[in-house]
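Allow me, if you will, to draw on your knowledge of protein folds for a short while. I have a record of one protein: its chain in single-letter code and its fold written as discrete structure tokens. The full record is reproduced below for your convenience:
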Amino acid sequence: MENLIPHQINDSCCKRETFSMKQLLILCFMLLCLFCSSVLAETKTEPAVESLPSLVSASRVAGPLDFCGESVPLDNFEVRERLEKELLLMLWDRPQVILWLKRSSRYFPYIERTLRQHAMPEDLKYIPVIESSLLYHAGSPKGAMGYWQFIGSTGRDYGLIVDRNMDERRNFFSSTDAAVAYLKDLYDLFGSWTLAAAAYNFGMDRLQAEMTLQQAESYYEFYLPIETQRYIFRILAAKLILSDPSRYGFELNPEDYYPPVAFDRVKFSLPGRTPLYLVAQAAGTYFKEIKDLNPQIRGHDLQKGTHILAVPEGRGESFHSRFRLLAEKWRQEYNMHIYIVRTGDNLSTIAERFNVTLPALMAWNDLTPEMVIHPGEKLVIYQ
């Protein structure tokens, strides 16, 4: 018995040691598989990190460089440093630059054509890249909105409709035409495209005041708020990258770029408030596509009056006859009632009184839960 016990213990140790060796072999095999798969995955990425130009080499700007034909003083060390900073920051955010490149083919052709028609320099097309990343829904804390980041008052000054039902700052074509007109006026005032672009960001009156206070004439000599001090350099960095993407390691194929949106325009008049989904049905599409093609429309309805809207390409010819029938049928089925708010009313009691849902009542009148109604206001109710 005494001889068996040590033998059993040693045998148990051998078993544990053998099991540990198996575990080690399995672990090594799994690690090898993971390494191989990661290598294969890396070979499929485009481009591999090792093939990208270094940030140091990419940030070197040999020059000469200009903005709208106006020379950038790269021999000034401070100017070069400010440009390199913006270039490095953009190159660090490579996904954002890729999206800029992809969207550029959708929007640049119209901007370039509009600028040529007004004999204005092509470099101005980079302004909406910096302002909004070419997104219609981009907004700022100061109330700017849309591709070109107009504030409401300036947008209205240049013919854009900005109210609770329509916001043409979000319409690419309308806002581009307005921005070109605004930039032309700024250039006529300052005599420099660089200063015109700075005033676009900073404000015309504020830049004029700084010119008087600082007695400076060149943008590169002004002491301005940090955002405006960076503004031209951000545009220049975008110009460098987007005009020569391969130099910075962005290798896109033609099919990678987003095509321009194709659509037909339809013009029609409405005798009263009409739901937008009827436009979608008449165009043989869905509500979202009409909203995407016409981002200036706010809410779910169109107001009384004449409208010019975009519909999917090829749907414009049959639109009017189909819309007329749908609109007539809808007006027969729905009785629109105008209710004047009384003292003590709230949205819930009004919805209950007319046997409609609260969300529907809010949608019909473009209301949000935090909005307050007041006596004398008019509400649209469909029954």
